[in-house]
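Good morning C.,

I know you're traveling, so I'll keep this short. The sequence:
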Amino acid sequence: MLSRTDAKIVLNEIMNLYPDARPTMRYENAFQLLMVVILSAQATDASIEKIQDKLFERYPSPEAVIESSIEEIETYINTIGLYHNKARYIFMSSQQLLDNFGGEVPSTRKELTSLTGIGPKSANIILSVAYGEAAFAVDTHVTRICKHHNIVDDDATAQDIEKRVTEILPPEKWGHAHQAMINFGREICKPRNPLCKNHPQLYAYLD
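The tokens, ready to paste straight into the viewer:
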């Protein structure tokens, strides 16, 4: 595993490759983002993009969701993987928002992870994107990159990765780092035939 100094070099060079990295998710409020985050597990941005306008129009609020049914929600999202579970998560989390948070999406990690379908990664995305809070989400891209570049050990958990990166980078860089690593994972540090060696600056610590 790289030293903190060398790992910081790698992370900073990834961010330098994508200085303007921004979330690609389209949303107008925290509740829409909550639904998009629930839908995003094992789904592409393009597949969500195709269905989200009608979903948002039909379900502008938690109240609209619970006045519907899980079965009806499924009809709006049945082109998305795991749609049975996701429809249930949207319904149950909407009920919990109304019961526990006055219909508003909470802004703390503890409260967000109390919602059905929202784990630490999803909570960190909502905190960072919707509320501008310092949070670092660990997804499959982040995990692959950190292990491929020896920022963490191969057996590191998501919790280990979050702890390691947030100890290396200052809080104001956590959101940018996450978005840059998504782009880097999609375009360069791919699961198959990664192109990292084409960017020697990533290995500047070897000089």
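Safe travels,
E.
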